[in-house]
Amino acid sequence: METILRILSFALGAYIVWVTIISAIKTFILPRNYNVLLTRVVHQSLFALFAFPARRAATFERRDKIMSLYAPVTLFVLPFVLLICIHIGFVFMYLAIEPLSLYQAFRLSGSSLLTLGFSMQDTPGALLLEFAEAAIGMIMVALLIAYLPTMYSAFSRREMMVAKLEVRAGAPPSAVEMIARIVRARGIDYLGEMWEPWEDWFTEIEESHTSFSILVFFRSPQPNRSWVSAAGTILDSAALIESTVDIPFNVQCALTIRAGFIALRHIANFFNIPYDPAPNPDDPISISREEFDDACAQLEAEGVPLVEDRDQAWRDFAGWRVNYDRVLLALAALTMAPYAPWVSDRSLPRGLVKSAVNGRGRETLEV
What we know:
With 367 residues, the chain is mainly alpha-helical. It has two domains: 2-144, no CATH class; 170-335, no CATH class. The chain has helices at 2-29, 37-55, 60-68, 70-97, 102-113, 124-169, 175-186, 196-211, 227-243, 251-270, 289-301, 310-321, 325-335. The chain starts with a helix and ends in a 32-residue tail after the last helix.
C-alpha cells in the first residue's frame, strides 16, 4: 500500500510540474493564442479583483487608475504562481522517493527551486530531482526576463501610433474630426494616402495581442487614449471615406478596414467574444441613421465633399461597419476604454459579452 501511495505521489508531482512547464511555454514562448488554463485562472481572479471596484468608481479617472494596475500586477503575480506550482509538484516527488516529513520536503523543494542550497538530500534520486528543480527555476526566471522586453516593445510600437492619432483626430478621437482635420491641413487627396501604416498597425496588433494577451489590458500612458478607441476611429474614418466622401475608391483604404476587423476578430476569439463571422450588409449596427446624418452635416460644414446619394452612402457605411461593430464595442467594454464617439460611448445588451474572461459560457461582464 505504501509503495502504491509513493507511486501516486510521484506521478501527481510530475504531472503538476509538467503541466506548469507546458503552461509557461504556451504563455511565454509559443507565438500562438493558446488559452492556457493556469494563466486564465490567474487572469480571471485578478480581473475580478480589479473590475469590482473599477465598475463602482465614481469617475472614469478613478476607474482608469484602478484598471491601469491590473495588467502589471498580473504579470508580476503569474511567475510566482508558476514557481509555486513547480514547488508543490516537487514536494510530492520528494515525498515519494525519500523518507521525509511534509515540512522537510517543502524545505528541500524551496531550497532547490530558488538555488539557495541550505537543504539537500545526498542520495542519487534526490540529487537528480534537486538539479532538475534548480534548472527549471532558473529557466523560469530567464523566460520572464526575455518576455518583458518583447512585450513592452510591442506596447511601445502600439502606443506610438495611438499618440499620433491624437494629433489627427483629437482627444477623444473622432472619425469626423480626423477627416475634417486632414482635409484642412493636407487636402482631399491625402485621404487616399494615409492608410498603409495603419494596415501595418492592425497586423501587428493582431500578432502581438493574441501572442501576449495581457497587452489587451495595458492602458495607454494618457488616460484619454486607448488602442481600442484608436482602432475604432481609424475603421470609422476609413468606412466614412469609402462610403460617403466623394473621392475615388481607394484599395488601400479598403484593405485597412479588412485588416482592422480581422485583427479585432482574432483578439475577440481569444476572449470567446461572440460575433457573426459573415454578417449581412444590412444587419443592424450600433450607429443610428441620425448619427450618420449628423456626421455628414459636420463634414459638409468643414468643406468635405460628400456623395449626393446619402441613402446609398448610409447603406455602404453600415455594410463596412457591420464587420467590426460588435467586436469593437465588446473589446471597449472588456477593457473599460475611455470615452470615444461611436466606440465606448454606447453599450451592448446585457449578456452579449459572455465568457470574455473565463471562457466557460457564463456571464462575466455587465456592459
